[in-house]
Structure to design on (445 residues):
């Protein structure tokens, strides 16, 4: 069929010379190496581990040592005495009861878990963004390719109409109508080229590399609806979504911080062990003998008044806990919405793909029939153009449905916290190298 030849010609013109193409996994690896969000998440995990270590260290023994050497001169009743002084001091302090330190350590441990979950969420979001932007480029390039192919078809129709007009077989209005359609498609091509550039820049933002050529989507792919009930998937999402889990950890950490601030009102008990070795006493006076002293003590510190600082720290901690609870409610609603929307839309895309295939078959038959009718003078050139536009629109709708299915499927996997590199590998098998063409077929045959 002539319309099929036009589509093949458009593919040949667009894909000629594209020998090397990047697949989805290659682009994902580029994004892994270049994504600052992922690197920042890794650093944040390291910070959390360091904070946990700091909080634990505050509860472990604190040992300090001091050494002092001095030259002294003592004058008593015009009698001078010079001597060398030495002092050695070793101290060990061990916290016995300090609830504030304990709950600060608990808060740090929970915060570390929160940062690890946030890192997982960033990684999941990166995978989804790679898929979304990769197929965003393919979709934009397909739109441009269809417009270029349609433009080529209209140019050939214009040549045919002009030849028929020269033989006085058609009216000049037919020529004008085709020319007007050609002008419109040229304007559409400018917009499509801009969309391709924008889509490539979106992908470049992830990989920090200019995308050159990408593998394209195969034809023989089976698009299946997502199984299960929506309510069950929402339950999975509320349990496994890493962003929501991280927010729940943030609430737990804020709650521990509140308890830590309140604990600052409580007494603190610690054990102190000191060892002194010196030959100098008060005001560096010389002792008759080198003296060693060992001291063991239990210190009890009772906070009485700190100018209201502790009270305000408690109020701040209460406010931060309230903020995190509000954030959890907002995140929960977002997760439920994303899961529901992605699940329903993905399944709707499957049905839309099947309907688009049937619509394309009907549009092809209508276009071919309209071209035959035009040759015999039964239809006008306007009827042919409308039929042609309908066929190209059906092709665009079919591809858009396929791309939308893939994007929504990954959006669903991200929402329920189940997205993984295995999913990328599966979709990567749906891609193929663009077909090369060394020559342009002659459509006049």
């Amino acid at each position: 069929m002539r319309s099929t030849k036009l589509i093949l010609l458009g593919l040949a013109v667009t894909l000629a010379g594209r020998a090397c193409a990047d697949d989805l996994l290659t682009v994902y690896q580029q994004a892994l190496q270049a994504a600052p969000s992922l690197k920042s998440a890794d650093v944040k995990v390291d910070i959390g581990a360091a904070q946990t270590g700091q909080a634990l260290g505050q509860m472990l023994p604190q040992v300090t040592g001091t050494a002092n050497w001095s030259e002294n001169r003592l004058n008593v009743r015009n009698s001078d005495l010079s001597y060398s002084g030495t002092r050695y001091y070793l101290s060990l302090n061990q916290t016995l009861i300090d609830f504030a330190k304990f709950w600060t350590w608990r808060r740090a441990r929970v915060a570390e878990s929160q940062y690890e979950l946030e890192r997982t969420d960033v990684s999941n979001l990166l995978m989804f963004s790679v898929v979304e932007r990769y197929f965003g480029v393919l979709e934009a390039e397909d739109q441009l390719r269809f417009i270029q192919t349609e433009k080529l078809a209209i140019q050939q129709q214009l040549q045919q109409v002009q030849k028929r007009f020269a033989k006085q077989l058609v009216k000049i209005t037919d020529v004008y109508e085709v020319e007007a359609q050609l002008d419109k498609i040229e304007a559409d091509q400018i917009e499509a080229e801009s969309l391709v550039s924008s889509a490539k820049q979106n992908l470049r933002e992830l990989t920090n590399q200019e995308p050159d050529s990408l593998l394209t989507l195969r034809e023989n792919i089976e698009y299946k609806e997502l199984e299960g009930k929506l309510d069950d998937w929402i339950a999975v999402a509320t349990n496994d979504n890493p962003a929501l889990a991280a927010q729940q950890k943030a609430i737990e950490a804020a709650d521990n911080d509140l308890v830590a601030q309140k604990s600052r009102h409580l007494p603190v008990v610690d054990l102190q062990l000191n060892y002194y070795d010196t030959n100098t006493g008060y005001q560096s006076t010389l002792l008759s003998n080198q003296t060693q002293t060992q001291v063991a003590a239990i210190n009890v510190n009772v906070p009485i008044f700190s100018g209201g600082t502790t009270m305000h720290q408690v109020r701040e901690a209460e406010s931060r806990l309230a903020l995190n609870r509000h954030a959890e409610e907002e995140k929960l609603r977002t997760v439920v919405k994303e899961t529901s929307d992605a699940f329903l839309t993905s399944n709707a895309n499957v049905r839309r793909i099947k309907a688009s295939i049937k619509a394309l078959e009907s549009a092809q038959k209508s276009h071919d029939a309209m071209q035959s009718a035009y040759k015999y003078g039964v239809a006008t050139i306007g009827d042919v153009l409308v039929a042609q536009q309908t066929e190209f629109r059906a092709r665009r709708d079919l591809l858009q449905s396929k791309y939308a299915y893939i994007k929504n499927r990954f959006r669903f996997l991200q929402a329920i916290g189940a997205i993984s590199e295995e999913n990328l590998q599966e979709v990567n098998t749906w891609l193929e190298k663009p077909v090369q063409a060394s020559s342009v077929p002659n459509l006049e045959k």
